[in-house]
Amino acid sequence: MTIKSIQKVIKVGDSIAVTIPAKDAKALGIKAGMFIQSSHELLKNDVHEENIGVAKEYEKFSAQYGEALKNLADR
Question: What pTM was estimated for this model as a whole?
Answer without folding.
Answer: 0.51
